[in-house]
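Hey team,

Filing this mostly as a record. A colleague (T.K.) asked me to run one chain through the structure pipeline before their review meeting, and I want the input and output archived in the tracker in case anyone asks later how it was produced. No errors, nothing strange. Just documentation.

Input sequence:
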Amino acid sequence: MLATLPHLTIGILCEEFGVTARALRFYEDEALIAPERRGTQRLYSERDRSRLAWILRGKRVGLSLADIKELLDLYDVGDGRRTQRLKTIERCQAKVDALQQQRVDIDATIDELTSFIALVKAQTDRKG
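Output structure:
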């Protein structure tokens, strides 16, 4: 249904993506989306809609807005999105690597705390 509309309003995008109008204006200020302006009205294109989907996906997986902007800007390089895809893989793999390291660190902290709890419990039971 939305694909047939020539322009999308701020209300339509807010409802579809569960974001606020303020968030859309912020993304516009950050040059991540560029709606057509008619006075105070903002009219979004399918391109803006697609970019918004990328922005929100990037945020969900922990990419910075600078990373997201760089990846979005690579869409227009003219190589059939190959550069964009390669950079996306690179950024996402770096995020996966960082998260895996965090998981190792968290597991080590949990093990340390579990051992410490057992030690304190044992000392408490002996003295009690």
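Quick notes for T.K.: The longest helix spans residues 82-127. The chain has two domains: 1-64, 77-128.
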